[in-house]
Known about the structure:
- By secondary structure, this protein is an alpha/beta fold.
- It contains 13 helices and 27 strands.
- It has 2 domains: 2-132 and 145-339, ANL, N-terminal domain (Rossmann fold, 3-Layer(aba) Sandwich), CATH 3.40.50; 417-506, GMP Synthetase, Chain A, domain 3, CATH 3.30.300.
- Helix content is 27%, strand content 27%.
- Strands 1, 12, 13, 14, 15, 16, 17, 18, 20, 21 and 22 form an 11-stranded mixed sheet that branches. Strands 3-2-11-10 form a 4-stranded mixed sheet. A 4-stranded parallel sheet has the order 5-4-6-7, with helices on both faces.
- α8 crosses α9.
- The protein is globular.
Amino acid sequence: MAILNDSRVAPVVLDLVDTFRTVTDRHPERPAIVHNGTALTYRQLDALIRTAAQRLGPRPGAVGVLTSRSPGIVVGLLAVLATGGTYCPVDPTFPVDRQQAMLAAAGCRTVLAAEPGLPSPPGAPRTDLPGLTDLPDVPEVWPGQPVGPEDPAYILFTSGSTSAPKPVVTPHRAIEATTASLRKLFCLTPADRVLQFASLNWDTCLEEILPALTEGASLVFNDAAYSGSFPRFLRMIASEHVTVLDLPTAFWHEFVHHLAHDRVALPDCLRLVVIGGEPASAARLAEWCALDTARVRLVNTYGCTETTLVTHAVDLHGPLAPDFDAPWSATSRVPIGRALPHVIEEVSDEGELLIGGPSLALGYRGLPEATAARFGAQDGTRRWFRTGDRVSRCVDGLLVHLGRLDNEVKVRGIRVDPAEVEAQIAGHPAVGAVAVSGVTVAARTTLVAHVVARTHADAGALAADVAEYLRARVPAHLVPSRITVVPALAYTASGKVDRTRSHQQAVAYHQVIEPMP
């Protein structure tokens, strides 16, 4: 195995909160956040963070922050980091049992609501954030606490082979090094206006929030971004003067189709579009290049939660793109790019991409065996994360993604282990056996489930019952879009469920639930 980028050394960077405070001192009256047209300056945001940090107190441990697309989520994030705590976002729309399981797995001592009125899980001590009219005694002395590079900064969850999600613990050195690299990759300046678009439950939102607010740029929240209407989306970009978009690849595919089909131009203010989460379609890329988009940078990114946001990137089109900025064929493989300056990479003899360096997470909290299986000293000295992704290297040095070495799939840009969904479905009392797999429908990956009813169970009602059962227990991205009741599953010679063959034989059956809303 050849070690690449071994000579790269992570830049020395300030703590994120210190960097934010430096930016605030330089640009106190610049808009830090614009929420549906209303601006919050860096000075005002700083005052809210100070007050929230004082309410939390020093060293609060892991704090579950109930998410909301509002300035409060940023206040909660930076206040937790300022106090030396560990940020853990929790979606208040998730089933209550799921929320409680996440809080327990992360070891959260308290819950912080990003917006008034958000319901919190029962039994969790709660702290409310201050409002702009609720700042009578803003602390003059910054209530922050010093943190070390290995101290946990945040905990996010990724899918695992059991019914419980895995809590990934990311330290300060990882998010600080990554944020510094992303500011340079995106060429951010205080004049930029970055749209907050990604789900607040996943790490992509941090690559929107943290680089922007540690550079003096403006972070834009706007309800029109999430309306599902591309015309409204484009009007919002223009009216809010958005310069940077960070989009899930699946959304970008549909966005390109709209632009090409309706012959719509991008707003003049837009200079950078970042995509990531799953492989980019060469056909959509060809359509994008055929549009009037040459002035806009299109950057493809790759990364895992365990390796902190983004580890690889490449300009696919626009003013900084290399020579392959030519018509793409529909059969081309779109590269995922080169390693960022803070990343060390290795490609194993089996073609698996391994990541090392300061961007690595500490591991999975409370799961030493899972941590040892994915994080290890492959060469006896350096710690690596096994991504599970197969890659090859082009002659120009760019990496191309060739698929997974395991059964994980990306659904809406979120990594899902079908075994987690299988474990949930297997808990239904009328299910005797289950197989879940990912299939591609209209250029999107979606989950499909095949279930075998227990003896004397009502097979005719089982598919709908399982769907209702899941909705009460897991987030929407873990609910299969199709559930098929089958007489039996296919098995391998070793006795394990064969997901591929089970799906192939299930298409012959007619008891299918149509795609659910």
